[in-house]
Amino acid sequence: MTVTLNGRPHAIQAGERLIDLINRSGIEVPHVCYHPQLGPIQSCDTCMVEVDGKLMRACGTMAAEDMNVVTSSARADAAQREAFDRILGNHLLYCTVCDNNNGNCTIHNTTKLLAVEHQEIPYKPKPYEVDMSNPFYRYDPDQCILCGRCVQACQTLEVNETLSIRWEDEHPRVLWDGGASIGESSCVSCGHCVTVCPCNALMETSMLGEAGYMTSLSKPALDGMIDVVKGIEPEMGYGAIMQVSEIESHMRESRTKKTKTVCTYCGVGCSFDVWTKDRHILKVEPLEGAANGVSTCIKGKFSWGHINSQDRLIEPLIRDGNGFREASWDEALSLVARRFSEIKAATGPDSLAFISSSKCTNEESYLMQKLARAVIGTNNMDNCSRYCQAPATTGLFRTVGYGGDSGSITDIEKAGLVLIVGSNTAESHPVIATRVKRAHKMHGQKLIVSDLRENEMAERADVFLHPRPGTDLIWLSAVTKYILDNGLADDKFIAEWVNRADEFKKSLESFTLEMASERCGLPIETLTKVADMIAGADGVCILWAMGVTQHSMGSDTSTAISNLLLATGNYMKPGTGAYPLRGHNNVQGASDHGAMPNFFPGYQEVAEPAIRAKFEKAWNVSLPPKPGLDNHLMIDAIHDGKLKSMYVFGEEMSLVDSNANYVGDALSKLDFFVMQEIFFSETCRFADVILPASPSLEKEGTFTSTERRIQRLYQALEPLGESRPDWIIIQDIANRLGAGWKYEHPSQIYEEIASLTPLFAGVTYERLEGYKTLQWPVAEDGSDQPLLYTKNFNFPDGKATFYPVPWSEPTDQQDAEYDLHLNNGRLLEHFHEGNMTYRTEGIREKTPCVFIEVSPDLAGERGIQTGGWVQLTSRYGKVRAQAVITTRVQGKELYMPMNSTDEAVNRLTSSHTDKVTHTPAYKETSVQLRVLGEVGDDPLPRTNSRHGHPTPQTGVEVERKWKRKDYRQPGDQLVQIQTR
Ligand code: SF4
Ligand code: SF4
Ligand code: SF4
Ligand code: FES
């Protein structure tokens, strides 16, 4: 189809908006409220163009065959100017002293584009105060142009539903929870609104007084300057004034550094520019992240206090009696090399073990496993995927062949139905949750959630299942059986693509709906409804996380999930598939790059002679043939006296492994323990040498996110003090042990990885430049696979396979003494135990401590109130914390988040594990509860978003603005909302 645009024919793409066509063709038309990732808001009217002789909004009009569009006719131009004049009536142009004058301010740029010299409608302040009640951003109503981008973002992209504009008010403004202060609203500080605001009305507080050369002046001085500027404007016009602000803006470029990085927290893989001025972090600016677009959560957008924290380790430390003393790098590295050599000589290479960090880069994991295997000579190598993700990987290895998400986040968005099992997605993978919430709210996607807690996704779900703890495998298998038995399965897909169908069907015999109903405590009608919804959906994606994997049946339940997808043909096409949500930013990458006891990079088996021979040749060493110890077995081996020394980097092992007291005892028995960290963590207490490392902003490398997406991070800052990037430290240790490595940049490490690993054969730093990404497997020619299975599954015959799984009773069951079930998991504001996030003041303010969620029933029965101190005792340890009474949990089930190092939930968890992978059964914990009598304040302060009251609506609801008596479409009679 073609349209005529300013007299010339233009081909249009299906479903294209006029504004996109205009932008694509290089014609400049103002469009203040339009943001491609938000869709048309139609509130600013600056994009008026003539379509077949009628004035229309280019953002709200779809291009259609034979349209005649004129963008610069006198009528269109006049309408655009009128509309923008109204905006200037709501916004004081003081660009030279504005922290938002950085070349990307939409208001500034539109003033320039339209060459505005004078404004017809005088600026008029609104009768509201600036709101500074959120620690991370502020709202200035006087600068707010009421474009509604922020509302649209909050309501339809983030879907936290905090923001609205009451268009009927005499002086409309943006409202939080319909009129609360930001600090006491439901705002989760995700930052979407701040990111999309086209001016300085919403700004990061870290920018204020910092971005401009003159913006740190006192308010009276600034006001005085603004008055002077306004005074000369009628005579000089804006042109001259804007030129001064342009010069000031250009001057900022020389000192404001913008560096593309990848979030250091969860596995979603959000990428963004970080703006720095010297070491000050001005802001995080998400733009075009492949995984996230403009989206972030509170952690990625605002939690960077750890970077310049006073607590950073900035010098090597060596144990000195009960304490530590500072040491030079030379002394520390020499000691490490000497002790590793001595221990290896005395008790053999397998008396040493190595743990890689899922927070660090792929290149660093690769070097760590190379150090263990090629330099020390042991396969005792693991990473924290053992604590969470290994069972999901096993379930996928068993059934479809690759241990990774079978599609991309865009597939999750596209699915007709999303099933979430054992994942608090809105808190643990917030940006993925936004995609599900958006699809559910705006596009009719169906949502089923199975969880012990009625978390946010459960509240939103069409069906919420609350099975008895540890019984997901049963209902998943029963639903699969029902689908197979009732002709609802995708028989064609099974016949063509799935092996062992008969054996599998037989294995399901005992999983009747009746049995599932009885064991899981779920009504049969609900189970059949779920089965019918899954079978009838146009594409199903299943998302799962630690609520599944951290069980003694973690691998088997993950397998049951994949079996269900295979039975319903939900692989090999867009909008389908299996999505184990990876927890840490690089937990996928750490395993992918060989930080495992049985695999070289790319899941090449160490026990396979031909594979080993390849690495032996490349590394010029002989390699140990037997798989090594995983991190669970390492702890037992220390207790057994077989393991003498460990080298751990970026892993709070003593608290995040289960049965923390047992783990701590083991670490204290080591002959020689090396920790490499950015802070003096709890685990550092057990160390003999502590090496100061650099966090993500101080180094280069790559991370691999949950959707198998490899992305580059660039160095924004120099390492603080004497700290060094982990890859440099690992190389230094290897070289002191005689390795002779000569890597000068992580790209050289990746060249080696690619040359040895078919899965990453085509990965190069050039192909990952800037915001470019690759989703493995990556062929030598650089082609990648966003959808993992298109032509075949990853088995020799190209077919997937059903994998029968039985059910067994969970471990650590309740009895008369330990009568309560304890669940645990992450909290939105903190990552894991909070070693990094507690270093951001605003996060501490909103979420200062750990707490225990107690159901209203149990609280009533035991006389517990919110703020009351309780003690939980398990068969393994005890903790004390304050209670929060909430309907998120039911009956005798408790929930304790992980955000504490003092009262860590893992002092309560056991050493039971998943049978296949040794992943701890963290979610199978029984406790007794003692009420301690003391009652304090609510551990979640008033400023915590959980106290807020969202105001859901479909978007900015601009039609209500159009209904105002004082509104006229520009080009007609000029009327402006603020000045009746
Ligand atoms: S939740 Fe808060 S920060 Fe996020 S978009 Fe809504 S108002 Fe803005
Ligand atoms: S605060 Fe919201 S409505 Fe106001 S200018 Fe910014 S994005 Fe637009
Ligand atoms: S923590 Fe996760 S969701 Fe939040 S910004 Fe980082 S990668 Fe994105
Ligand atoms: S950009 Fe079209 S109405 Fe604002």
Beta-strand segment tally: 37
First and last CA, distance: 44 Å
Number of helices: 32
**Shape, please?**
globular
- Contiguous low-pLDDT stretches (5 residues minimum) are 973-980
Mean pLDDT: 95
Proportion of beta-strand residues: 15-25%
Which kinds of small molecule does this entry bind, naming each only once?
Answer: iron/sulfur cluster, FE2/S2 (inorganic) cluster
Let me know the largest β-sheet: 7 strands, mixed
Structural class: alpha/beta
What is the spatial order of strands in the main beta sheet? Answer: 14-13-27-26-25-15-16
| Rg on CA atoms, Å | 29 Å
Describe it for me?
The protein has 32 helices and 37 strands. With 980 residues, the chain is α/β, with parallel strands linked by helices. It has a seven-stranded mixed beta sheet. It has a six-stranded mixed beta sheet with strand order 33-35-34-37-32-36. The protein has a five-stranded mixed beta sheet with strand order 2-1-5-3-4, sandwiched between helices. A hairpin with a 2-residue loop joins strand 13 and strand 14. Helix 16 crosses helix 20 (524-536) and helix 25 packs across helix 27. The longest helix has 19 residues, at 329-347. Bound molecules: iron/sulfur cluster (SF4) (3 copies) and FE2/S2 (inorganic) cluster (FES). One iron/sulfur cluster binds next to helix 8 and helix 14. Residues 263, 265-266, 268-270, 292, 296-297, 299-300, 430-431 line the site of one iron/sulfur cluster.
